[in-house]
Amino acid sequence: MNIHDLAKHLNISIGTVSRALNGRSDVSAETRKRVLDAARKLGYSPNQSGRSLRRGSTGMVGFMVIANRSRAVRGEAFFMTVFDGVQSVLAKHNLDLVIYYCGDEQSPETYVQRIVERGLVDGLIVSQTTRVDHRIDYLLQQNLPFIAFGRSQSGGDHSWIDLDFEGVAEESIDLLYRLGHRRIAVATTAGDVNYGFIYAEACRAALKRRGLELDDDLIIREAISEAGGYRVGERLLAMKQRPTGVVSVENSLAIGLYSKLKEAGVEPGRDIAVVGFDETPTFGLFLQPSLTRFRLALVDLGRWLGEHMAELIEAKRSGKAAPVAHKIWPLEMVPGASTIPLLSAAGGGETVALRPETKPARRVRRASETAGS
Amino acid sequence: MNIHDLAKHLNISIGTVSRALNGRSDVSAETRKRVLDAARKLGYSPNQSGRSLRRGSTGMVGFMVIANRSRAVRGEAFFMTVFDGVQSVLAKHNLDLVIYYCGDEQSPETYVQRIVERGLVDGLIVSQTTRVDHRIDYLLQQNLPFIAFGRSQSGGDHSWIDLDFEGVAEESIDLLYRLGHRRIAVATTAGDVNYGFIYAEACRAALKRRGLELDDDLIIREAISEAGGYRVGERLLAMKQRPTGVVSVENSLAIGLYSKLKEAGVEPGRDIAVVGFDETPTFGLFLQPSLTRFRLALVDLGRWLGEHMAELIEAKRSGKAAPVAHKIWPLEMVPGASTIPLLSAAGGGETVALRPETKPARRVRRASETAGS
DNA sequence: CGGAATTTCGTAAACGTTTACGAGATCAAA
DNA sequence: TTTGATCTCGTAAACGTTTACGAAATTCCG
Fold first, then answer.
1. Do residues A190 and A249 touch, judged by C-beta distance below 8 A?
2. Which of A81, B115, B259, B322 has a 20 to 30 A CA-CA distance from B344?
């Protein structure tokens, strides 16, 4: 069933059929109706290969995820939620979302190269960026709209979106500091994915603003998973001078951490303060004691990606310059019972309510300001 | 950069270039090397649209997931793990996996129809089958290799794979029965997705084999999510005659259930027995007390899908009959501390070790056989 | 050395669309 | 009726491949 068959069936030319299906103006209303009706009845849709070949565009947007570059795709529902947002927006622009899943056997760089060279997509979203990301270097040389989900140090101006790791780090450290904690560990990701470094450095900066140094021993890098969080717990418990609080870049870390701590009789929220990250997996919401964490509108983030991608593609189609955008996506703290005031600390901390105001002040407090309890 | 450019650059014809790139025999070794080198150097890969159009096949396999048909795609890492297995196998057969994410605005039926009519894929995997699934009815009329991930009642012979819900139900009920439980609730999914019914009916049958009736009130249908599990807990606790054990078709249900039970001071594994399902999300592994659950080799399941799809496509290409396959995928029980002998039960149960053997006997025991403790 | 067999390559058609172009039909205005 | 203008449609080229076919070059063998 192709356009010739349909045209023959209607006794008109293929040109007219095509124009009718594509909503062109130079076809009579009556003919258009006949064509559309027949197409539906006979189950005809234009062949995508033929259309793409002629048009020079496929109408597809790629989203590349990498299996084993933490955040470990397999272990989480994170990306599925993002897809939801992207897909819903792209559909409105007559674009399809296809997900390219880069397994272990493939190199992400050659995978991207193949996708581009073969003309598979009109636009590409790459996620899980590394500090130096050759995919981005490559894409910058091509004439294909793309967005990076995650920052990288690669030069060149291109669109990207990333979570507000700095904001989360600042609020996390601020909360613990105000609760009196002075020895704080940072659980972050191993591997060279970029956000692990961003988060750790942001924590270091937040501590520094409060007159504290972040000892390198207190940066605990583990794979992003519950098992990784468990190992974080092991390493924490093995420390000679145990930290009184932990902040972590991922909830699955917090989940495994809880598990190890409880096993050792160290109760989160009573014996040690724990700050998580976003609310995916949703499971994190069901930890006990409830985890202090950050709300993240992940579907909306996906929508932003879809909107901006549609813009980029439209700009290219009409020959305009690409509207480059950079976006830091905010998260909102949700206080839980896992962060408690440190009563036993020498010198004590500032007295604060166990449940801080929902929007904690971002004002930086210096150690000299704090009053004893 | 297309095949003409490359041919011109090498001073040979496009036919030869194409043959060289496609590994045909009628091209000299020297010429082939020149072509391959130049292609790599100049960054040329054959345009997919042109190739698909000429070949009549796209080299792509579609995997369709539906956003909000439980198991809720967004809430879980389940499918990502399957993708991993599928992708790794398909890659060996020079096939690409593309994931079609069917959002809320789209009807799954018309989405499938569009994918088929436009010739987007050489094969299609559809998941989250309903009892009557019109996608399958439609696909049976088309000439496209497809596999259903999940059974349905739609007639017609086609390949499918599904989890062994019957086996899990039998083992779950058997365990609780042998521990002395006689009033057992079944937590399963709401909506018309097929496996929710399969599981509930299998539990009913397993109970019947032991001389017990499954009261309809004890079948608790809720959305597959932690929140759904929480509501399961609410409904359990509201019952006049509270069940002593619960089996559930999904771990996220168990997670939410734990949360509600603990909130009410009802300790899983002490006051009520809980049996979970598979180990996704991995988080379920970190529940306390540890959850009795079933190990599921989900990556291998994905590999099976990939292998069989490659077979189907190869068979069609060579004009052979499609090798239809039906597969029930096994799960293996992992006993945890959430299933305990019911000491307080009138009449008591069979005395069994708290940790049953790793492979509990499937032999059906009748009530008359059981000995008092 | 002649002819057949084999190797290597160029030519051109075909895959299913979209769209520029132009032609015929219709219509309004003079 | 004539002349444009407008509406509607058919024709044919083009998109980038793959591959059947045949031709030229080479090798083989008697």
1. no
2. B259
